[in-house]
Amino acid sequence: MTAPQWLRRPAGAAPRISFGADYNPEQWPREVWLEDVRLMREADVDVVSVGIFSWAKIQPTADEWRFEWLDEVLDLLHANGIGVDLATATASPPPWLTARHPEILPVNAQGETVWPGGRQHWRPTSPVFRRYSLALVDRIATRYADHPALVAWHVSNELGCHNVYDYSDDAARAFRDWLRERYTTIDALNHAWGTAFWSQQYADFAEILPPRLAATHPNPTQQLDFKRFSDDALRAYLRAERDVLRRHTPDVPVTTNFMIMGETKGMNYAGWPADVDFVSNDHYVLPGPQAQDELSFSANLTGNIAGGRPWFLMEHSTSAVNWQPVNVSKKPGELVRDSLTHVAHGADAVCFFQWRQSAAGAEKYHSAMVPHAGPDSAVFRSVTRLGATLRDLAPVAGAVREKAPAAIVFDWESWWAAEADSHPTNRINYRQEALDWYSAFLNLGIRADVVPHGAPLGEYALVVAPMLHMLSAAAAKELRTYAEAGGHLVTTYFSGVVDEHDHIWLGGYPGALRDLLGIRVEEFAPLLDAEIVRLDNGLTGTTWSERVDTADDVSALARYTSGDLAGYPAVTRRVADAGSAAYVSTRLGTAGLTRVLGDLAAAAGLASDLPASVRGQVELVVRRNGDARYAFLINRTARPVTVAGVAGRPLLGRVAGGVVELEPRGVAVLHCAPTPAP
């Protein structure tokens, strides 16, 4: 039986956007539990994740099981109308297990054991760990399969957050098996890895190791394949737990929390939705000038990885976290705005880490829905306001994200390969380049989807594929087909340089895209930290530059004016049948890309849906449920903003005389009329 795509609810239950948190009652005495559920009802909480780090509580010794406390918690939550996303509790092995079986502990690239004392101290490929963990999952699933509180299963927690790369002997054996399946023969592997270099040719798969500490740079394709293998190993573990759960409860959906945020790059999440029944994500704001942009970027990418379907915001913070160098608290309005930005991009559940702020442990300074100050606090008052707001937005529940007119392609494998060692520079930042383009779209007021590499592109008028470093011949052909069919492609420096084996496309850069773009680069010219290059449109570039030679049918939209590159094109565009292909050869940053993108968007026939007066200040996102459309207007600034010309009935916010009035960091949601048929 195929599991449903969303939380299991009682028959006839009204749709709503769910609201809740990780709930860790094992940290508190029983008398606190009654207070917790009372406050949950006050805040309109309807779902909590329970048991995430409770293995040692459930199984205090190898032969002892204690479920009574968890029975009591689930019964209490159900009696108060609160559903449970029940975790499998496998994220952090108990001390007795690591003492009995230290061979489950991960090993780093230097050969050092990663010891207990934190969390996720287990090898994804350990058969011993899997035997114990799946026995735990089986026990939990057997006991709670029919519990009325159960609305979903939560596999482990943030898989790969701390243990994505394990270099142990277990990992070495599993890596060899993975390579045998991928390449079949040792000759095929030697070709893919280019082992003729540095006398690395293998005679047998048994000779191969993970890319452990070496005298100098390990083989680049070995490193790349180890990243692919490590991602696959985590997914295989996810499927192992999922299959146990489905055997007991085929009608209860299974999920696990992704971490699509910041510099978390070890997991290629583009493929992970196939292993779960609905997508969940954790996101925490990273302070800085693009903090709100990055939140939107990550939520946008999560929504598109989910295929446009609703997804679950499993964790974010009510205020400060505990793991950044300086942990700043959120400003007034940010708790609600951050949450609703995720909802705008498709989240049908808004949850926090955690319900009650811990009094002890490594995360005691991490904010929660009920802070150390208790319910008589600004944070809890904001939480209860958010709960009421989400109730008001119930009509949005189930709505899908409306496709934007433009897209940014995001590719984890290009991220891995572009930032590998022994490259022209180690100063490039793949995700930052993609985020800068997204910020440019926000500044122009043009809606853009962030889509995984390989997603269909045909419906987008403009597609930006920044630093698409790794391109197979088939993927390059798809980009050519897109442009020649009328799409407008934009790409950047260090794109199309290598194939799927990390082999250079010979004949000049940008290799696989050279003919489509109509350009040829003989040699890269990366810049030192203090260097800049100047362009004739007044912009400056950093990090990277190139001497770009162009074909006769290529237009130079900007040229270098400084140094040895003076007079050479810096930004180019070539008409390709019905469409076009453009190239940006230096890092221009958000401000520079905003100017360049403005010209490219105009050439593609794109215009903003927002008045010029609020572009860059307000983000517009649209969700659709049948003919109903819901426009989210998000104030990115700390001052009031008014938006004219957006018609609709407000579900949230104030509209007066056809003008939407947004408070500082405020959000309005309008129920709009259907888009007229073309």
Summarize the SSE layout with pairings:
Elements: E1 18-23, H1 30-43, E2 47-50, H2 55-58, H3 68-79, E3 83-87, H4 95-100, H5 127-144, E4 150-154, H6 169-183, H7 186-193, H8 220-248, E5 254-255, E6 257-258, E7 280-282, H9 291-305, E8 311-315, H10 334-344, E9 347-352, H11 378-392, E10 400-401, E11 406-410, H12 412-418, H13 430-444, E12 448-452, E13 462-465, H14 473-484, E14 488-492, H15 514-517, E15 519-524, E16 533-534, E17 540-541, E18 546-550, E19 554-559, E20 569-576, E21 579-584, H16 589-603, E22 618-625, E23 628-635, E24 641-644, E25 649-652, E26 654-656, E27 659-662, E28 667-672
Parallel strand pairs: 1-2, 1-9, 2-3, 3-4, 4-5, 6-7, 7-8, 8-9, 11-12, 11-13, 13-14, 14-21
Antiparallel strand pairs: 10-22, 15-18, 16-17, 19-20, 20-21, 22-23, 23-28, 24-27, 25-28, 26-27
Helix pairs in contact: 5-8, 6-8, 13-16
Structural features, described:
The protein has a nine-stranded parallel β-sheet. It has a seven-stranded mixed β-sheet with strand order 12-11-13-14-21-20-19, sandwiched between helices. Strands 10-22-23-28-25 form a five-stranded antiparallel β-sheet, covered by helices on one side. The chain is of the alpha/beta class and 678 residues long. Helix 5 (127-144) packs parallel to helix 8, helix 6 (169-183) packs across helix 8 and helix 13 packs across helix 16. The protein has 16 helices and 28 strands.
